[in-house]
## 1
Amino acid sequence: MATERGTWNYRDRFGDSFGRTYFRRFPPGVAASVGLGTYLGEPTDTVDNDYREAITAALDNGINMIDTAINYRCQRSERVVGDALDATDVDRNSVVVATKGGFLPFDGERPDNPGRYIREQYVEPGIVDPETLVRGSHSIEAGVIDHLLDRSLSNLGVDRIDCYYVHNPETQLLDRDPEVVYDSLEATFELLERRRAAGDIGCYGLATWEAFRVEPGAEQFLSLPRVLERATQAAETVGVDDHGLQVLQLPFNVEMADAFRRATQPAPTDADEEGPVSVLEYAHAAGLHVVTSASLGQGALATSLPPAIAAELAGDTTAQRAINFARSAPGVTTALVGMSSPAHVAENVAAGTFDPLGASAFDAIFE
Ligand SMILES: NC(=O)c1ccc[n+]([C@@H]2O[C@H](COP(=O)([O-])OP(=O)(O)OC[C@H]3O[C@@H](n4cnc5c(N)ncnc54)[C@H](OP(=O)(O)O)[C@@H]3O)[C@@H](O)[C@H]2O)c1
């Protein structure tokens, strides 16, 4: 498991090769502000081999946050992260391993009949109540997450997942009443508090796509204060002092900067100003870490950035400038970049040799 000392040792080994604030505080110690994601790619042996090589190169060169999810590439991504952790010389206790649960995963390949697969593997054995399933494969019920978390521990071959995300909880809002969804979240937070107390996870969070980008009236909107109230309540029910909901993951890049630009959350109670604030501002005031997904717009921004924005960002290549946009946003800890190619790892980790923009320079981009 990641430890405070292990992650600081990793920083001491690599910190001098990078620019200002490349390593940033992240539970239980520090994490690189460029992380490796494992979402894209077909569920094949070839892509497994590419990821294995890329993850090893990342760990060997200054990236100590690896992000995956149980459903990515039919569980192959989690398994390949586990293989790479096993094979590397880098200490396990210096690496933050993050995964997610919410979408019921296939196993190794896509079945011919996904509906039948879900019914046979999850509904008939009693793992999931079909009433709680949205879009045929999404559930955030505590019993389901408990089951998925055990499988993730086994796929990753680790005794603790450092950061466990509830995956796209806003998907539930497409078919279910918001109050029911917040109740489900609270019950799942209770489970995650228990698993945290048992040492199976380090901290937990929400990984989202729509929830923290859209306006309050939108169907998939989540209120961050309400989510945090539910985490506080869950901790109280379980009898722990401080809740372990410490991280938000959300898409953020030049084209999807809503978490910074849109004031969708109420002002924090101790704020000087009245009126709504952005998710990044609310998260910062609440002491949450923010990790960005799709930092390269799923590849599109690696070759093309609006010239006026590119001109403000440091980097030798377009991809590096795009990554430096995400890791410069105030309140962001780590920009995740999906990379199954070792050449991309080398290019992307070198983004961290440039200093990020300061807060006022970042603000100025939008003026
Ligand atoms: N809702 C959620 O929870 C959610 C949603 C999306 C993503 N995520 C997480 O966030 C991570 C990052 O997002 P993402 O993978 O969707 O998108 P991304 O990081 O924006 O883009 C990844 C794509 O960019 C390519 N790429 C990487 N570096 C490059 C470079 N220097 N030059 C050209 N192309 C480059 C990758 O190719 P190669 O593979 O060939 O290197 C891959 O196809 C994911 O992997 C996942 O862990 C979470």
## 2
Amino acid sequence: MKTCSGNCGHRDPLLCAVPPYMLEKVAEHGKTAKARRTALDSLQITNFFRSKRREIQRAFQAMGFASFAAGPGGTLSSQLERRVYDAQNTKDLPGRLVRSEGGPKSADPAVNEVYEGAGQTDSLFRDEYGRNSIDDHGLPIVQTVHFDRRYQNAFWDGAQMIYGDGDGKLFGSFTTDLDIIAHELTHGVTQNEAALVYSFQSGALNESFSDVFGSLVKQRAANEDAGQANWLIGDNVLIGKKYALRSMKAPGTAYVNHPVLGTDPQPASMAKYAELPAWEDQGGVHINSGIPNHAFYLAAIEIGGQAWKKAGVIWYRTLCDLLPADATFARCAQATIQAARNEFGGGSLEEKAVNRAWKTVGVL
Ligand SMILES: [Zn+2]
């Protein structure tokens, strides 16, 4: 594993669905004192887990796991193994075991949503790209639902997934979007592959790869072509028909003039790249990810057909074989072009489409 174990100087990331700037908006502009307090609580819990994550990494490394993500899950398997726990609205982790691999459906939709979501995510990586779970070594996928009360986030804590129920006004349950589940689990894949450093451009690429595979899992489950997909991320969790967390097709339009959140700040091209300090969203990792997201969308549309079959393969091989942890957008662009050449040949339609996509967003 190439992931930074916390001793190379940069802060450990907490890989959550809702970026800090959205919760900060709610904490500041939420309509009621209760809404503002709930957002503030969610932010504080996020900070708590950020420090806990480092302890988890150290403990697993001390136990001699090749990958700390292998966790306390026991034997590594060559088959998918899912476990879903219920925190019963407490902060106790992992909580009560409520569904295991092959076990009967739960009466609780959240349990079934994350069980199925992990299955769809694993199936994309396993059946299309030959990957054995998140770490490629059969890591059991552990997920906890109903974490805390009104918790407004979902995240990968380095060893497992954790989902809040949302406050029911601004955010619904974080288990309702397949692309959010897949986005978070993909952070585990990235952690075990390119291990992209979670700040500035490499951090925005880390976010973007999660959106790319999050969207591909959703498209594959719905059997959609690139042209049929809506390319939105989190269009259920953010309450309101016209709102989503992000748009890969048109970054900056996922929510417009939202009464609390304002307007989606994502740029679609380098002309609007947000130069931000490290303390603001780790240098804009959830903001500038709009640029590589848009490049993927453009490449997938030009290549056509089911996006996970060709564009997805190019991005997956790039993530596994061709990117250093500190990759910039330009480095990623070159790497995807190389991957397209490796997979489909020099001068192929796929290589040209990838090249054109990065030019359109102003990276090349
Ligand atoms: Zn993320």
## 3
Amino acid sequence: MRHVDGNAMGGLLWEVFGAEMTHQLGCCAGCGAVNPLATLTVYRDAPGEVARCPACGTVSIVVVRMPHAIRVTIEGVRWLQIHTG
Ligand SMILES: [Zn+2]
């Protein structure tokens, strides 16, 4: 399946979190790797996007766009660190 990097998910994450997220750090629940979200491997599978850990392949974040909502699953992220300036 075709994949891109985490920057491709940046627009959707901006809608969800209200901030630029690609440079924020996330810790993989599968292997503990800490990486900026931009480094996630993103698979586009309409209507959703699936982001996997670049180190172990664990599904980190799933974003599904619905008619009047966006559903986000972040089960594969142990923690997400959002820089506050
Ligand atoms: Zn991992």
